[in-house]
Amino acid sequence: MTTGLNGQKKKLETQLWNIADSLRGKMDADEFRDYCLGFIFYKYLSERQHLYANEVLAEDGIDFLKIDESSEEGQEYLEAIKEESIATLGYFLKPSELFSSLAERALGAKKAHEENLRDEDFESSNFILDDLAQVLNSIERSTMGKESEEDFDHLFEDLDLTSTKLGRTPKAKNALIAKILVHLDKIDFRLGDTESDVLGDAYEYLIGQFASGAGKKAGEFYTPQQVFKVLAKIVTTGKERLKSVYDPTCGSGSLLLRVAREVESVGDFYGQEMNRTTYNLARMNMILHGVHYRNFDLRQEDTLEHPQHEGMRFEAVVANPPFSAQWSANKLFESDDRFSQYGKLAPTSKADFAFVQRMLHHLPG
Predict the structure, then answer these.
(1) What H or E segment, with its residue span, contains residue 298?
(2) Which of 198, 278, 289, 292 could form a disulfide with 221 if both were Cys (CB 3.0 to 4.6 A apart)?
(3) Residue 266, SS3?
(4) What span, in angstroms and rounded, lies between the C-alpha atoms of 94 and 46?
């Protein structure tokens, strides 16, 4: 069984990295990372929506994709499924908004581009960029006013479909995006296999691969798994379950997820990350690894200057703080509960020391 899962994992990693090659040479590694991981996440949300909707519709023997969105009966089905989906998954997608639906249209766009059709012969149905942008916005809109809103807010903001790096003309951009959607649609994520986290592992693999290609900038959002493993084992020694785990420099969320691997279960995950793009990646990473939106609370801000989880204590605290970082060491922090007991602030050039103080502050007394 393990051998089979490892083989499936390797196959998926290879397939996904080959898709990443579609963007090589057009932009830097940390830029095409945002597109590749964003599309993979969109496909994941779509497949999860399709599976869940079919569970809801099982008694009626209806496939979610076959619902007629224009009919009155179809609208009734969609409203009922939407309510259930937002409560359970945190978001909702209509059948026409699923990845597979757009990928089917993308296939037509890809063929049209290969046939080198003139702009006047390029059918409007082959142009998918605008619809894709609307779908990604729709995912966020479906959560507005709901409990999951904060976890999905501006989640796809780094996936800029208007960037000239995708192509000089709208038609060229459309062709590249269509190519990626078509290739990605051929991959079976096997989300129905509840015992497997192959996709989660492959996602982590891609984050690592992109980090390698991003050079010195990689440390902003990624730490090698070997380091994660050691840190996770230290905080989980002698424990089978954790009520909570916190990372004040959570990056892409990989260390938090690694801690979860060392125990039977983790109740809630907490983290803070300063970089907006990395924060978005962390939220995607949590959801993609099956962490329910109610069980993680990630915030985007400078942890030392603007802490977001004040007054809270956590069973485990982990971090790989940025050792080269600086902070203000503002005199006002001398009365801050996080630092006051030490009688002196960490120097401006030693933000890592201030992070350690911050970590100790959140451990149970």
Answers:
(1) strand 296-300
(2) 278
(3) strand
(4) 9
Each as own residue / partner, the long-range contacts of residues 155-162 (CB below 8 Å, 24 or more positions apart, any chain) are 155/280, 155/283, 155/284, 156/38, 156/42, 156/280, 157/276, 157/280, 158/34, 158/38, 158/276, 158/277, 158/280, 159/34, 159/35, 159/38, 159/39, 161/129, 161/132, 161/133
> Nearest CA to 45 among 108, 109, 94, 11?
94
Query: What DSSP element (H or E) covers 42?
Result: helix 29-56
Give the predicted TM-score (pTM) of the model: 0.88
The 10s digit of each residue's pLDDT in 102-156 is: 998 887 655 655 556 555 444 544 678 889 999 999 999 999 999 999 999 999 9
Burial class (CB in 10 A: 0-12, 13-18, 19+), 138: middle
**Segment 36-53, tens digit of pLDDT:** 888 889 999 999 999 999
Q: Are 255 and 228 in contact (CB under 8 A)?
A: yes
CA pair distance 323, 339, nearest whole angstrom: 18
Residue whose C-alpha is closest to residue 206's, from 28, 14, 7, 2: 14
